[in-house]
Amino acid sequence: MRQAIVAWWNGITSTFGRSFVAVADAAAGRNALELGTGDTVVFGKIRSGFTGGINVTPADGPAEAQFASTTAAVLSVARYSNSNNAPVVFCLKSRSDTLGTNSAVAALEQTGNFRFAGADGAGNFRTGAVIGARAVSAFSSTNAESEITFSTAAAGSLTFPIRLIIASNGDLLPQAQTTLGASANRFSESHVVKPVAYGPSILASYTLATLPAAAANARGLVYVSNLTGQAAPCYSDGTNWRRVSDNSIAN
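Above: the chain's sequence. Below: its structure in token form.
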């Protein structure tokens, strides 16, 4: 891109709403915003409800931004306002192949992720951990049921199965094995729980009067502080809370 255009780009202060199409001047050492034929940069509205910003829309291929440095590579989002509102980073997903078309995402479709990768010494960066989000059920104007997934690669492996899920109801679901399914946007999983404790496991403490309904907490384990005789752990059999020590009903 010509230096005059670069200067225009760097000096923009009030041109929101403008757009242009250009071919990059990619001469060695040239500081420029590189664009390909048919690519568009828009100053102004990014999406409905937003009136300021930069929208990069490639004619083909991915839209990417890269920050590289030998000292520090930082992405900072700041908001200055006398309010409780925080700066926001959006991951927006539509199931359409057409730019600007709003098509509902399907159940188990990924809606965004953050990937953490390191150089392997052989010219590649290898993903070792992922924090992701996905739809639990199909999205609609009244439903956005979602869950957060945490994935890590084990020693000697380049795959990163899901290890933990924060479910849509807030439950924590450890995963023994979760692998990519037939579709690149979907997962198949075996919900096998295998928590490993590296210290004492602390049970939630209740009195007999505050115990939650046994029917709604089958197989649940709690600590009851005012049982006759002494405080003790109790479990729900789906009908009653019972002492772990002798299976008697908690009283």
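The first helix runs from residue 3 to 10.
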